[in-house]
Specification:
CATH topology of the largest domain: Rossmann fold
Oligomer: single chain
CATH superfamily of the largest domain: P-loop containing nucleotide triphosphate hydrolases
CATH architecture of the largest domain: 3-Layer(aba) Sandwich
Radius of gyration: 17 Å
Strand order of the largest sheet: 2-1-4-5
Length: about 180
């Protein structure tokens, strides 16, 4: 579950990216956030991920108020999330397989579980035949699917995506979205 209660974000420059946002995304819901460029969509995602701090209000994730979460606890919060970033954040010196497996190494998955799970998720996104390739050898859409595989591989309780279709559909974008299992 994601809940925002009167959340605002004002940057040091004085730019107000989010103004008094209140909403709830319940377990099982699929929510889309659409708006013009610069309307605060990515800022909302950064607030959920604790990449940015809210200027005011409260943010509750899976029943816990993360508004004042200590920085050392942020990695544990993020383990419940699969994230697809706008810029993919793929590791250029790692293969497709290694990029996806990296998300599992972070949460200390066993090597056996990694060997079983990564090929299954790569098949799910149609990249089984690209496992040994590097990000610079892939198209933008393929890179996006690697990022999606990485977000799915740990079976997270929620998927957060910043412009998830940007490279998959050249003319139309679905904006940002969240899915809560």
């Amino acid at each position: 579950m994601i809940e925002f209660k009167n959340v605002s974000k004002v940057y040091k420059t004085g730019t107000e990216a989010v103004h008094n946002a209140s909403f709830t995304i319940e377990k099982g819901e699929f929510a889309f956030l659409v708006g013009q460029s610069g309307s605060g969509k990515s800022t909302l995602i950064k607030l959920i991920l604790k990449e940015e701090e809210a200027s005011s209000g409260n943010i509750i994730i899976n029943g816990k108020d993360i508004t004042f979460l200590k920085p050392k606890r942020v990695p544990y919060l993020r383990r419940s999330m699969g994230v697809v970033f706008q810029d993919f954040r793929l590791l250029p010196d790692k293969t497709v397989y290694e990029n996806v497996a990296f998300a599992m190494y972070i949460v200390k998955a066993t090597p056996k579980h990694i060997r079983r799970q990564v090929p299954m998720v790569l098949a799910l996104v149609g990249l089984s035949n690209k496992a040994k390739m590097y990000p610079n050898q892939l198209s933008g859409g393929e890179q996006q699917r690697v990022a999606l595989a990485r977000a799915l591989v740990n079976n997270p309780s929620m998927i957060i995506a910043d412009e998830p279709t940007r490279k998959l559909r050249s003319r139309y974008s679905m904006g940002d979205y969240a899915f809560i299992k």
